[in-house]
Amino acid sequence: MQDNPQFGIAAFKLLYNLLSRISPAQLHESPFAQSIPFHDKDTILQEDLSKEIVKLLDLAFQFASEQDKPLYYSTGQISTYFGVSITTINNWLREKRLSYPSMDNKPSFKQARIPDTAIYKAPNGNETILREIIAEYNCRKASEPVYQDVERVKELVKTMMVFEGNYGGTYEEVVVRLGDPALSTDWKWSRDAEEWRYLMREISGER
Questions:
Q1: Would the pTM of this model clear 0.70, i.e. be above it?
Q2: Coil, helix or strand at residue 121
Q3: DSSP three-state, residue 163
Q4: How far is C-alpha 39 from the geometric centre of its chain's CA atoms?
């Protein structure tokens, strides 16, 4: 860098800009951010350049370490991701089909906190990191609600159409003809009207 100052400055700016994109808040809150004039990085002294690049590299390693920290899950959560019972998860832990380096050999894993870096070994011998299984589950669930909601609304509409067919009109039209169901002596109309109103609230999204 002493032979080519511009290369050193370019390397410094590249590292800084990269870190500012990855974790801007942590970068600007760090003591390092206060130590040099970031508003004019081109004017940094050559004698300080190597030191500042080393500081940037240290920050980069810190950020990488934090990103690698595992998330921990209970056996109940893990059972949801796999679609099996908690008992099955406990059996997998005892049999080391679901394993991680710090796990203990104990008869019960009821209070276990399982890292997403744990390895699941399938019956065919294939191994998958738990993090990938969780990501796949979340991706699948993210697309399910929309489909499920649409299907549910379809069923609600079908049921409402049955009421309209039975009473020969919309809810409002039937109320005009038969009167306020809350005041009616016709228990069947009162009961059906209550369910009818429920269907309309659910379909419209009102709760």
A1: no
A2: strand
A3: helix
A4: 36
